[in-house]
Design a protein that fits this description.
- The protein is of the alpha/beta class.
- It folds into 2 domains: 111 residues, Enolase-like, domain 1, CATH 3.30.390; 233 residues, Enolase-like C-terminal domain (TIM Barrel), CATH 3.20.20.
- The protein has 13 helices and 17 strands.
- Strands 5-6-7-8-9-10-11-12 form an 8-stranded parallel sheet. A 4-stranded antiparallel sheet has the order 3-2-1-17, with helices on both faces. A 3-stranded antiparallel sheet has the order 4-15-14, with helices on one face.
- It is globular.
C-alpha cells in the first residue's frame, strides 16, 4: 500500500431519518481511500452517526485510524483494527478489496464470487422503507413505492404513542395491496409485553416478519416473542458476527437474522456469519446502515456474491446530495454496477481530506 487517507463529510437528507432509535437530518460519513503502490485505488464509505446499531461514531473511526496509522497495511492490521473499531476495520477492508478488484479488472462481486460460485445477476431486489409519520403519510409513501415497482416495504414501528404503529401499518397494507410483502422493524423499542400485544395487528397486516422486537442483549425476551408463533422474528441489532448468530439460534430467539457488514467488521466475518445462519436453518437478510451510493453499492455487490434471499440496499434514496455514483434503481431493484471494483465513482475535494500517512 502506498497511501491511505480519509474524508469526513455530511450528506444531507431529503427527509429526516426517524424511527425508534434515531432522528437524523444528515449522514455523518467517513470515506476511506487506499492507494496501492502500482497506482490502483479503492474506496469505502462508513456511516458515522448510526451508533444505535453499531455502537460507534465517526469520531471513533477517525481515532482508530489515527492511532494505528503507522501500521496500516493489509492484511495484518485488520485484527488490530477490529479490536479498536469494527467500523474502521470494515472501511479499510472494503477499500483494499475494492482496489484489488479494480486492479484485477473485475467487479467487487466477481472478485468474491469464488466463495459461493454464484452467477452475477443484473439487479438485486430491495425494499422501500417507511419511517415514522402519520398513517396518511405512510399510505402515500407505500402507494408511491408500489408504483415505482417495489415488491417489499419495511415499516418502522416502535412509536411511543399507543395505537400509532397499528394504524400506520394498516394504512400501508391498504395502500400497498395484498401482494406486497410487508416487513416491520421495531429497532428494539418494545418490552416483551408490548411486543406480544403487537402480534395480533402484525398478523392482521400480514407482515412477513417482525425485526428486533425487543432490545438487543436480551435473547430470552426475543425468544418469548418467537415462541408465541404468530409472526417470524428476525434479529438485527442482536445479530452481529457468526458467534452471535450461533447464540441467538441456541436461545431459540429467531427465525432469521438481518446481517450487516458494519456489525461484522470484515468481509470474511460476514461470510462466516451467513454460512453459520444457513447451517442452522435460519433465514438470512443482508442490509446496511442508511448511507450514500458508495455504501449501497458495496452492500449490493456483497448481496450478489452471497446470493441472499432478502437485501436492503437503497438507503441512498434519501440522500439529497451525494459524492458518489452512479447507482440506479429499476422496478424496485438496484442495478448491479458493471464497472470494476464497487462500480461507482467518488468525487471528494481536499477540503475534507484527513491524511493518515
Amino acid at each position: 500500500m502506498a497511501a491511505f487517507s480519509v474524508h469526513r463529510i455530511a450528506l444531507p437528507l431529503r427527509v429526516s431519518l426517524r424511527h425508534a432509535r434515531v432522528d437524523a437530518h444528515h449522514l455523518d460519513e467517513v470515506f476511506v481511500n487506499v492507494r496501492l503502490r502500482d497506482g490502483g485505488s479503492g474506496w469505502a464509505e462508513i456511516r458515522g452517526n448510526g451508533a444505535y446499531a453499531t455502537g460507534e461514531t465517526a469520531d471513533d473511526v477517525l481515532a482508530a485510524y489515527a492511532e494505528l496509522a503507522a501500521e496500516l497495511g493489509p492484511p495484518a492490521i485488520l485484527p488490530r483494527l477490529l479490536k479498536r473499531s469494527r467500523l474502521a476495520a470494515m472501511g479499510f477492508d472494503l477499500a483494499c478489496r475494492d482496489a484489488a478488484a479494480r486492479q484485477a479488472g473485475v467487479s467487487f462481486a466477481q472478485h468474491l464470487g469464488h466463495r459461493g460460485q454464484v452467477p452475477i445477476v443484473d439487479a438485486m431486489p430491495t425494499h422501500a422503507q417507511i419511517g415514522f409519520g402519520t398513517p396518511e403519510e405512510a399510505a402515500a409513501r407505500a402507494a408511491a413505492a408500489v408504483a415505482e415497482g417495489f415488491a417489499r416495504i419495511k415499516v418502522r414501528v416502535g412509536h411511543p404513542q399507543a395505537g400509532v404503529d397499528a394504524d400506520r401499518l394498516a394504512a400501508v397494507r391498504a395502500a400497498a395491496g395484498p401482494r406486497t410483502v410487508l416487513l416491520a422493524d421495531a429497532n428494539g423499542a418494545w418490552d416483551v409485553e408490548r411486543a406480544l400485544a403487537a402480534l395480533p395487528w402484525l398478523v392482521s397486516a400480514d407482515v412477513a416478519w417482525i425485526e428486533q422486537p425487543t432490545p438487543a442483549g436480551d435473547d430470552d425476551a426475543m425468544a418469548r416473542v418467537r415462541a408465541a408463533g404468530k409472526v417470524p422474528v428476525y434479529a438485527d441489532e442482536s445479530a452481529g458476527d457468526a458467534s452471535s448468530v450461533r447464540r441467538l439460534a441456541a436461545a431459540g430467539a429467531v427465525n432469521g437474522v438481518h446481517l450487516k457488514l458494519e456489525k461484522c467488521g470484515t468481509v470474511d466475518e460476514l461470510f462466516r456469519a451467513v454460512e453459520v445462519a444457513r447451517e442452522l436453518g435460519l433465514g438470512v437478510a443482508l442490509g446496511q446502515m442508511d448511507c450514500g451510493r458508495l455504501g449501497c453499492a458495496a452492500t449490493t455487490q456483497l448481496a450478489v456474491a452471497l446470493d441472499v434471499e432478502m437485501a436492503e440496499l437503497w438507503g441512498c434514496a434519501n440522500v439529497a446530495e451525494d459524492v458518489a455514483g452512479p447507482l440506479e434503481l429499476r422496478a424496485g431493484a438496484v442495478v448491479v454496477p458493471r464497472g470494476v471494483g464497487l462500480g461507482v465513482n467518488v468525487n471528494l475535494t481536499d477540503e475534507t481530506l484527513v491524511r493518515m500517512r
